[in-house]
Write a structure and sequence with these properties.
globular; Pseudouridine synthase; 22% helix; 12 strands; 202 residues; 5 helices; three-stranded antiparallel β-sheet
Length: 202
């Protein structure tokens, strides 16, 4: 294949860039790039453009996204996911279904979100996670996102886990969204177990 699109069902544990590198190696192409970015622990659809098709990226990257996420209440981790060390724990109260649904509903709409420090966003030519690993302070500007819809799929009362589906604009970080949900439920950050990308771009 010299030009076109490859649809990858990304497994957990791979960065989006690592997947691109593997596709380039397997297909023996020099030019390739992914549309959007999935966190390393996230699974799901990752479209990759090959060759001349990479010129289409500017038209496809703006599309909205849909995710399903299962999140764990009661622990705050430095990276915002299960790979980071626990920096705070807080008791989780009774997870009332109606209350959880209300929290999700109230979070819909346009809002400002600060990207996580452990991310690949570049500021002054340096990725944010590089600042984090070096212990260097950095001011992260907030950016506007939009949550179009959120719906509760399941509550695991024993494990204190909540599963929900969200439709959102590009650039939305599910890890940060989980933190906001946790705060509104009266506990600390929910770390993301998985976020399955169900992009409407394809």
């Amino acid at each position: 294949m010299k030009s076109g699109m490859v649809i990858i069902d990304k497994e957990s544990g791979y960065t989006s860039q690592k997947v691109v590198s593997e596709v380039k190696r397997i297909l023996q192409v020099k030019k390739a790039g992914h549309i959007g970015t999935l966190d390393p622990l996230a699974t799901g659809v990752l479209p990759i453009l090959i060759g001349e098709a990479t010129k289409m990226s500017q038209y496809l990257v703006e599309h909205d996204k849909r995710y399903i996420a299962t999140i764990q209440l009661g622990q705050k981790r430095e990276t915002g996911d299960e790979e980071g060390k626990v920096v705070q724990e807080k008791k989780v109260g009774i997870l009332d279904e109606k209350n959880v649904q209300n929290v999700l509903q109230k979070m819909q709409g346009k809002q400002m979100q600060i990207p996580p420090l452990y991310s690949a966003i570049k500021i002054n030519g340096k990725k944010l996670y590089e600042y984090a690993r070096a212990g260097e302070p950095i001011e992260i500007p907030a950016r506007e996102i939009e949550i179009y819809a959120m719906s509760l799929l399941a509550i695991n009362h024993e494990e204190k886990q909540v599963t929900f589906e969200v439709s959102c604009s590009k650039g939305t970080y599910i890890r940060v969204l989980c933190e906001s949900i946790a705060e509104k439920l009266g506990t600390v950050r929910l770390y993301e177990i998985f976020a399955k990308n169900r992009s409407s771009a394809i």
